[in-house]
Amino acid sequence: MRVRLPALLTVLAGLMSPAISLAQVSPRPHASAVPQIVEASHVSGNYDYLLKVVVADLDEWARITERLTANGGGVDRITTLVLLHKPKIFVGYPVPQR
Questions:
Q1: Burial 61-83, CB ≥16 within 10 A → b, else e
Q2: How far apart are the first and last CA of the chain?
Q3: 2 lies in a domain?
Q4: To which H or E segment does residue 60 belong?
Q5: Closest listed residue to residue 54, CA positions, set 13, 87, 5, 12
Q6: How many domains, in total, are found in the chain?
Q7: For residue 61, what is the enclosing H or E element?
Q8: Could you give the C-alpha distances from 13 to 25, 33, 55, 71, in angstroms and in order?
Q9: Is residue 55 part of a domain?
Q10: Residue 24 belongs to a domain with what CATH number?
């Protein structure tokens, strides 16, 4: 199966210290400094952040990953999920009729 590009990736990112936030990682490769990160959510569980990332190709994602995890980058683990198929598309929240 080929991945259509540009690709929307869902990424789980774990920080080196849970006491810091994605905005505090050094040398500042955080969400606002990486335009390819289009959404960031602080989550509970084994990872600290759920990111939505749009990249032109997987080489671009590899460069971003290296930047986030490089010496003192603040991120110590990343899991990347590539969307293969979307069996149900979000169309809005169900709102009860009055």
A1: beebbeebbeeebbbeebebeee
A2: 46
A3: no
A4: helix 58-69
A5: 5
A6: 1
A7: helix 58-69
A8: 12, 16, 17, 16
A9: yes
A10: 3.30.70.920
Query: How would you write the pLDDT of the chain (98 residues) with one tens digit per residue?
Result: 455 567 778 888 887 665 555 555 543 445 677 889 888 888 888 888 888 999 988 899 899 888 888 876 678 889 998 877 788 888 888 888 87
Residue 54 lies in a domain: yes
Q: Which 3 state secondary structure label does DSSP give 13?
A: strand
- Give the containing element (helix H, strand E) for 68: helix 58-69
Which two three-digit tokens encode residue 74?
């603040």
pTM of structure: 0.70
